């Protein structure tokens, strides 16, 4: 790590750096117009970060990063060309625009190609409180990582090894501009502390961990608390059992429950829909979930992990329902997929923003008590989800529940069902959410799934 790396975080010059990126973007748009493009868009980004890793009390890696990148897309009517570069020198920038134009001249017309409509561009840019850089140098980061691992290794005598601890901080600046005259500037920060530990011996060893992540340093858990939580989770997995094949209630713990929402998003995204590769084709207006269930998208949430006043095409974002009273309200579309489907963009070019899943239950403990007997899933493995049929089959680990209490850990099992049926038979969503994700959901209880083990 060179002597200038700590200076990356010494002063907040983000406003000047954003103006520099905006100036580059405007010059490239002018160049594209001069070369005959009817429309053009430019995305510029600059990322800076520090990442340290320790293991068994020793420093493993210290990495300082400073990356920049730029992408240009031009349209000649309905013909599209794109090119990108990490070199922001003037000669390279001009060559990138020229390359994009050359590609566009040789592509076929695509009726859905083009910028989002000019009338949809964002005009208001509120402060969404996503910028909290951490003035952290390498030695401070290493001290935090070592304290985290030490707390975890010392928490229980059964912790015999470590996969290490890490501390990371990052800043990201980005500018999106297009030939409608739109220029959008964004800045964000992200920080994390993590620890992974190994307990037991020989074939009985188990690995688990914990991490804390946040926009601001003040949102992170104490490093020692992260280490101790990692130790608790690791020793809780010792001496796992398998299960006989049966159909039982399955409760997805908070940290894995959001994967179910992720499968929904994949199925209602524009790309899957216009390719006819989704089990939720023609589902807007259909009841997919119980009547109490809802999902709200809140892109303008202050201090949200995915807050933004505009999407990846400059379209203004707004709070809106994705699911209301169990009924799917809309798809997740950018302008291209919307045109392919004969619909309008939903302001989701680049993905969804902050999602809030409605809760109808209390804490995890109360949900376990109410479930009585079944499986609590804390880890999912494999990619056994068919997006066309909705068939779901994934490796899992967690805990068997008897009498509303954790009885013993389980692994080497598979849980299976069909997502459409799983959505319809959701019985509860808890109110204990995970702040580390832009999908805010509590634990999710599915009334019945097939659990297959070795017993």
Structure characteristics:
455 residues; 2 domains; five-stranded mixed β-barrel; 17 strands; Metalloprtase-TldD/E_N; Metalloprotease PmbA; hydrolase; metalloprotease
Describe the fold and architecture.
It is built from 9 helices and 17 strands. With 455 residues, the chain is of the alpha+beta class. It folds into 2 domains: 5-234, PmbA/TldD fold; 240-455, no CATH class. The protein is globular. The protein starts with 13 loop residues before the first helix and ends with a strand. The model is unreliable at 1-9 (pLDDT under 50). Residues 246-453 form the Metalloprotease TldD/E C-terminal domain. Belongs to the peptidase U62 family. This is Metalloprotease PmbA. Its EC number is 3.4.24.-. It comes from Stenotrophomonas mori.
């Amino acid at each position: 790590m060179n002597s200038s790396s700590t200076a990356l975080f010494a002063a907040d010059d983000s406003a000047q750096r954003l103006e520099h990126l905006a100036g580059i973007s405007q010059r490239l748009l002018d160049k594209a117009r001069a070369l005959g493009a009817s429309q053009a868009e430019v995305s510029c980004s600059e990322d800076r970060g520090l990442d340290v890793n320790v293991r068994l009390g020793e420093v493993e890696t210290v990495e300082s990063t400073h990356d920049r990148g730029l992408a240009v897309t031009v349209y000649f009517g309905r013909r599209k060309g794109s090119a990108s570069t990490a070199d922001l020198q003037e000669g390279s920038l001009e060559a990138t625009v020229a390359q994009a134009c050359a590609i566009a001249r040789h592509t076929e017309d695509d009726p859905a190609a083009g910028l989002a409509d000019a009338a949809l561009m964002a005009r208001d840019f509120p402060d969404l409180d996503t910028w909290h850089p951490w003035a952290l140098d390498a030695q401070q980061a290493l001290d935090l990582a070592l304290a985290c691992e030490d707390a975890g290794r010392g928490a229980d005598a059964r912790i015999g090894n470590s996969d290490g601890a890490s501390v990371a901080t990052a800043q990201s600046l980005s500018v999106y501009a297009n030939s409608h005259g739109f220029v959008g500037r964004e800045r964000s920060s992200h920080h994390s502390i993590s620890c992974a530990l190994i307990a037991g011996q020989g074939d009985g060893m188990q690995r688990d961990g914990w991490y804390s992540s946040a926009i601001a340093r003040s949102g992170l858990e104490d490093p020692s608390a992260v280490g101790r939580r990692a130790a608790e989770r690791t020793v809780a997995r010792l001496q796992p059992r398998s299960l006989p094949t049966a159909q039982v209630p399955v409760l997805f713990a908070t940290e894995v429950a959001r994967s179910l929402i992720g499968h929904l998003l994949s199925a209602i995204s524009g790309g899957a829909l216009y390719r006819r590769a989704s089990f939720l084709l023609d589902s807007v207006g259909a009841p997919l979930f119980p009547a109490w269930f809802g999902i709200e998208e809140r892109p303008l949430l202050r201090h949200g992990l995915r807050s933004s006043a505009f999407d990846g095409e400059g379209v203004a974002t707004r709070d809106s329902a994705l699911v209301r009273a169990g009924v799917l309200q809309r798809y997740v579309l950018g302008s291209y997929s919307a045109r392919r489907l004969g619909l309008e963009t939903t302001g989701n070019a680049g993905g969804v923003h902050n999602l809030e899943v409605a809760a109808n239950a209390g804490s995890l403990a109360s949900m376990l008590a109410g479930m009585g007997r079944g499986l609590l899933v804390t880890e999912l493995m494999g990619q056994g989800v068919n997006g066309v049929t909705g068939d779901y089959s994934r490796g899992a680990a967690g805990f068997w529940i008897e009498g509303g209490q954790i009885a013993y850990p389980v692994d080497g099992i598979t849980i299976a069902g069909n997502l459409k049926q799983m959505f319809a038979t959701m019985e509860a969503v808890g109110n204990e959410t995970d702040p580390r994700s832009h999908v805010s959901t509590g634990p999710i209880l599915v009334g019945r799934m097939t659990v297959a083990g070795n017993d």
